[in-house]
Structure formats: C-alpha cells, structure tokens
Amino acid sequence: MRSALAVSHAARGLLDAPVWSRSFAAAGPSRLALPNACAADGRRWSTSKAADGPETEVKVVKRRGRPPRSTTEAKASSDKESAEPPERPRRRASAKTAGSSTSATSTRSKAEPKTSAQKGRKSGSLMHSDVLDHSHLPPYEEWDEIFPVRRAFGGHRYFISNRNTAREVAASLGIDKLAAKGVKTTVIEAYPGPGIITRELLQNPNVEKVIVLEDTAAHLKWLDVLKEDPELGPKLVIIRASGYSWPSYNKIIDGGHLDHLKDRIWNLPCQQDQREGLTDETGWQGPSPLLFFGQLPTSVYGDQLYAQIIFAIAAKRWLFRFTRLRMAFTMNKAILGRITSKPDSRDFTRVPLATQCMTDFIPTRRLSGPNAFEPWAAHCFPTRQPIGARLLLSKNIIPAANVPKATTKLGIGLVSLEPKKNLGFTAETFEVFEYLTRNLFVTKSQSISTSMKRIAPGAANVLTMLNKRGEPDEQIDPEQAVHSLTPAQWAGLSRMFYLWPFKPNVMLESGRPTGTSTEEHHLGL
C-alpha cells in the first residue's frame, strides 16, 4: 500500500513539475542512462525523483524530433563554449598543416600548371611553344586572364593562336597569286581577335590595307598595340563595331577607307562619275582588289552571317555592289560539311545550294583537309573547343538559361570562295529561287512534280515549259527528287517560274519596313 502511494505521489509530483524539468532526466529506475533518442518502440521516456521515494519511470506523451540534452550535458556544453573562443571559418589549411606540407605544396605548384594555357603547353599538344608567342601580345601563359571565356558571351568566339597556322591561312588566301597579275589586295577582316592573322596580312607587301571590325574590348586593346607599330600601323584601320552588324560596313564606306580603290571598283561615294569604260558588268568580270576574311563564331549567328553574305551575291548587295568580292572563312565543321556536300545528299539544303550556284571554291593549299586544325589546342585559343553557345544580344544573363552544347559544331575548317563571273541569276530570278527553295525543301525527299503542286495551282506546268525551252543541262525529270536537283536545274527552274504568267504576286517576305530604302540605310541586307 505504501509503495502504491509513493508511486502515486511521485507521478503527481512529476506531472505538476514544469515541462523543462520533466524533460531533462539523466537516468531511469535501473540507474542506466536513458537513450538520447526515442525508445525502441518509438516512445520517449522521462523520470523524476520523489521527495521520499525511489526514482520512478513514467511514460510521457509521444513527441517527434531530436530530444533535448540533459541538464548535466547542457551545463557542460555551456561551460565549454564559454571557456573556448569561437572558431573562425577556415579559408585555408591550418598553420600546422600548412607548415607540414609546405615543401610538397611548393613542389606541386611548380610542377602542375594552373591555367588551361599552361596545361596545354604542359600536355605536349603544343610541340613548339615559341609559335604561340607574338611580339604584340603578352606571354601565352597569361592569355586565360587577358582573354577570359564566359560561356554566355565568349563561348562561341575563338581565334587562330599558332603563328605558323596563321601564316599558312594568310598564304592560302591567294593574295600573292593575284599580285602576280598586278593587283594588290585590300582585306576587310571580321572577328580578327587580338590580331594574329591580321599581323601576318600586314607583313605581306602585296596587301595595301587591312580593315578590321572588332567590338570586344579585350581584343581591341591589342589591336591598338598593333596600330602603334611604326611599320605595320599605317596599313591598319580599326572599325570598333561588330562584323555581324550590317551598319558596321557603312562605316568603312562613309569613312573613305576604300577611296584608294576608286580607279578599280565602282559605285563608291567618292566617284562623281564612273571611270571611263567601267560598268558594273565589265568590273564584275575582272579580278577584285577586295578580299573579305572572317573567323566566324561557332554560334548560330556565325552560320547566319555566312548565309546572308551568300544570298547577297545575285542581287549584288552588300560589298558586292562594288566588286566581285573574294571571300574566305574559318567556320565550324558542321556548316563546312554542308556547303561542300553534293546534290542527293541529306546535308544538301538551301545554303549549300546557293553557295554552289553563286560561287566557285578556291583551293586552300595544305589547310583544305578536314583535320587541318587538329589538335585544337595546338592551333586555336581558347584551348578547349568552342561549344556553339548562343550569341546574346543583351548583357542580361539568365542564370538558369539552357545554353545548347552544340557538340556537332566542334572543330573548324577553312574555305575560300569567289563569285562566279556568270551567275545564271538576275535579282528577279534569284528572288524566285529563294521562294522556290524555301517551299520545295520542306518536302525535299519527294518528287519535284509532287512538290510543285503545293506551291501554286498548276505550278507543275513549269516543268513542261522548262523541258521544252531550257538548255539540256537545265531539263528536269518530273520524278526526280527535290534534293537531287543540280545548280543548273535550279537556275532554269527559277527562270521559267519567273516567266510563268500565273506565278504568285508576292513570293518573298523581305521583312523591311515600308518606305525604307535598302541602299540608303545599309549595304543591301
């Protein structure tokens, strides 16, 4: 009876005690420490000692979460915290650890490169390091800091870094071959980077002038150094604008940077009257003193710039209004493989077709192979291959932007082109060509007769007209697939469609504002 009353009093005393005193029991009836967490059955246990009786075990309400510490543990912890100063967050290894590993760290820091440029040199991929040193640029090991690569803005840009490769590229442009005919060359270079190829061009005595278009501050700084060179600087003109922007080329014309060619090209503003005996047609047939060269970005805008240049040839817009401009590009292997593909290939689309209709390919000596710029780190900078990131038109970066990797754009190649003397297209028929290719290549695997029926009612009759009036190499089998048509067949089809009296009135959406003159505001695009 007495023991039952003791238990009752103990329980009542425990329940009447404050909550915190019920929670900080140190031991149970068996003098064993209670577990810090919940018991095996998921319940929390607590004890309290009655005034005159033994310690009693009492079941309390089930709770969740981490159990509080006992009073003894809490007191010991608070004493320890008050005795010891707060520990500072460690940014580096402690002095003891650093002292014991100083020799190993110093040895490793000397042996291991820190930057990707140093890693490229240490890896053995750069066989002769001196070809990466340029007189107007800082040491190669500092390039990672001087030319930082940001994925959103700089991942698509690259430049030839190897001096021997740059020299070979400059020699592949046909400048010396044209000089043998008595024609010196003026080069317009887009995306020159810090001017490695630019320097090789300036050193060529057959180059009259080099006009570069660059808007990246990190590159302009070293182009300005090249401009200060007493021997090369007078031949260099720097336009601080992007080669992708069409108004940038107006600055070349408005600045009078082509006035020294007024006796060799036509339609310049400085020419009050055309040179006697020179017309657009006769000037187009002769060799051009102008050359356009660009290290095209690996983004979609590099591909877009190339396509717009090619589509400007037939109507003689852009720089083609002055001369039969020669062109050379370094571009990613994806677009290079397409423009060199053959009819009846899955890669043969509108841009390759227009390229082969409008231009002739010029051999580029030893750089014409698919692996001419391999390994990448031995020829180009950055040492990692470009990923084809999007070229943003704003500096507001979206942190979670899904930037495409574009793995098919890895690697670059060189191509050199010259517009054909006889294009086979006029401005009007080329407009038809754009309309036809835009609509027919949607169903390029089908027969040409089936695809023509979708363009306009009765459009298949154009094939009958072509086979009766066209040249033998222009005639088309109605069952021939769209993607297998040759450039000559496309030229004949465009001409006959233009003559067809039932053709649609509006065939091409130019996207230009109403009342805007192309020739007044830019060079024709």
UniProtKB/TrEMBL annotation:
Residues the record lists as binding S-adenosyl-L-methionine: 160, 214
Chain intervals with Low complexity compositional bias: 95-108
Top-level EC class: transferase
Keywords: Methyltransferase, RNA-binding, rRNA processing, S-adenosyl-L-methionine, Transferase
E.C. number(s) listed in UniProt: 2.1.1.-
InterPro entries reported in the protein's UniProt record: KsgA/Erm, rRNA_Ade_diMease-like_C, SAM-dependent_MTases_sf
GO MF terms held by the record: RNA binding; rRNA (adenine-N6,N6-)-dimethyltransferase activity
Region annotated Disordered, chain positions: 39-130
Compositional bias ranges of the Basic and acidic residues kind: 76-88
Record PANTHER family: DIMETHYLADENOSINE TRANSFERASE (PTHR11727), DIMETHYLADENOSINE TRANSFERASE-RELATED (PTHR11727:SF7)
General function of this protein: Mitochondrial transcription factor that confers selective promoter recognition on the core subunit of the yeast mitochondrial RNA polymerase. Interacts with DNA in a non-specific manner.
UniProt similarity note: Belongs to the class I-like SAM-binding methyltransferase superfamily. rRNA adenine N(6)-methyltransferase family.
Name assigned to this protein: rRNA adenine N(6)-methyltransferase
Protein species of origin: Tilletia horrida
